[in-house]
Amino acid sequence: MPIFKITHITKYTYDRNVKESVNEIKIYPYLSSQQEVLQHDLLITGQPDVQTYFDYWGNKKGSFNLMPPHNELVIESRLVVRTLLPAGTQFNQDAGFNELQRAMTGDLQLLELANGDAIAAQDAIEEITAAIYQDGKSVAATIKDCCTYVYKNFKYLKGITNVETTVDEILEHRSGVCQDFAHLMLQVLRTLHIPSRYVSGYICPNKNGMRGEGATHAWVEAWIPGYGWAGADPTNNVWVTNTHVKLAVGRHFKDCSPVKGTFKGPAKQKLSVYVSVGYEDGQTFEEMNNVQMKGAGSEAGERALLQGVHAQQQ
């Protein structure tokens, strides 16, 4: 099974001192039988105490407060992880929607994840569901066809969406990045009452042409009766393999934000995000994103931090 060395550095710089930077981080690998953490070091400016706990979705979450005045905040994650998902994993290809209904009975979280959001363009979603689902079709086949539909009918294009982009806007643009494709696929699957959740993490395919390589990534997990949570990556039209490393899950992106927070002070800020993936053959893939941030004060600071996180989703 492959081993990856992943370095993820989020760096905020301010044009004047700020203080009381309160942050929430979800950059801890998700506890799963499909991956094994061999080492994880977390380095933060000022070495603040980080309180960790697990949230409603099962994500390990850290909170810290950098109280003293500072003009820079660096959060560096150094991870060594082994992925354990066997090649050619077989799902239950025969399980249908009747079996799914029985599996959901009494499971409040599955029921919650099986209901879509209220959007203006729900008619367009219904058109997609009509194209991918027919009576008697299995749950697994429906999920795969949804993944394929998004991949073929929506263009992978950076720079036209942000963290606040809605499914309505994605349908209008007919394009976006991995976060957008995941949100669209979630709305389609939930319209069919298939429990599904957003996943954030990394994709590490060692330069085989897959979109999003070397950067933070997003995909979907959907519930298949007789198997459980199965990952599907609509950005690349593949079932998730041992080249995907999972950080967090939730209903939407905001449940999985790697970094978000606020600060006090009338400062403008800049953000840079660096991600590198080292492979067992000695190759390293690196990517750096520089994002100009605007805003001052704690409220604007929170918006900027969230927007900066979106810049990491490729």
Structural features, described:
- The chain has 314 residues and is α+β, with helices and mostly antiparallel strands.
- The chain folds into two domains: 3-83 and 256-310, Immunoglobulin-like; 97-255, C8orf32 fold.
- 24% of the residues lie in helices and 38% in strands.
- The chain has seven helices and 15 strands.
- The strands form three sheets. Strands 1, 2, 3, 4, 5, 13, 14 and 15 form an eight-stranded antiparallel sheet that branches. The protein has a five-stranded antiparallel sheet with strand order 11-10-9-8-12, covered by helices on one side.
- The longest helix has 15 residues, at 139-153.
- It is globular, with a radius of gyration of 20 Å.
- It starts with a strand and ends with a helix.
Descriptive terms for the model:
8-stranded antiparallel sheet, Immunoglobulin-like, alpha+beta, C8orf32 fold, 5-stranded antiparallel sheet, single chain, 2 domains, 314 residues, disordered C terminus
Task: Provide a quick synopsis of the model.
Helix content is 24%, strand content 38%. By secondary structure, it is of the alpha+beta class. The protein has two domains: 3-83 and 256-310, Immunoglobulin-like, CATH 2.60.40.2250; 97-255, Roll (C8orf32 fold), CATH 3.10.620.30.
